[in-house]
């Protein structure tokens, strides 16, 4: 993952990425065991250098290089929606500065889609499905050329 470089250090007053992800997963699933499994899975990918955690404030972008110049991103946050809207351009700027040409994400939460639209970033939006513990659910694919 040489294209990704180093993630910004966690400044004082901000939570550790693992704490943000765990809290987010607990809010989404209500299941501490499932939250811990997700953290362990993500940590393994980071240790294997297959993914990286990029943190801005108390928002973590889990970034996985999906191909040459392509970055798959998932968002974990403890910040207010208005703040998250500001984090999206920061993440896009980071990805571009590290040589990526395209980012994408699959999102199942319609509220997150509205926040992405508020960011005014030029995402292409299409409908898809996503596999979860509950089976296939409707989702949206966001793609953006950098």
How would you briefly describe this protein structure?
By secondary structure, this protein is an alpha+beta fold.
- Strand order across the biggest sheet? 1-2-3-4-6-5
**The CATH top-level class label:** Alpha Beta
Largest sheet: 6 strands, mixed
Question: What is the overall pLDDT average?
Answer: 87
Q: How large a portion of the residues is in β-strands, by DSSP E?
A: 25-35%
Globally, the shape reads: globular
Describe the overall structure.
By secondary structure, the chain is an alpha+beta fold. It has a single domain, classed as Gcn5-related N-acetyltransferase (GNAT) (Aminopeptidase). It has 4 helices and 6 strands; from the N terminus they run ααβββαβαββ. Strands 1-2-3-4-6-5 form a 6-stranded mixed sheet. Strand 5 and strand 6 form a beta hairpin. The longest helix is centred in the middle third of the chain and has 17 residues. The protein is globular and about 35 Å long.
């Amino acid at each position: 993952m040489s294209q990704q470089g180093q993630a910004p250090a966690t400044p004082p007053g901000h939570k550790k990425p693992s704490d943000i992800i765990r809290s987010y997963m607990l809010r989404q699933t209500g299941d501490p065991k499932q939250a811990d499994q997700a953290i362990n899975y993500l940590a393994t990918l980071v240790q294997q250098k297959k993914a990286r955690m990029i943190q801005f404030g108390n928002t973590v972008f889990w970034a996985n290089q999906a191909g040459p110049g392509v970055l798959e991103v998932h968002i974990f946050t403890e910040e207010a929606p208005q703040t998250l809207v500001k984090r999206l351009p920061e993440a896009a700027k980071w990805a571009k500065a590290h040589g990526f040409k395209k980012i994408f994400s699959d999102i199942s939460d319609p509220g997150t889609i509205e926040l992405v639209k508020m960011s005014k970033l030029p995402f292409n939006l299409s409908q898809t499905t996503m596999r979860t513990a509950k089976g296939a659910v409707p989702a949206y694919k966001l793609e953006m050329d950098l």
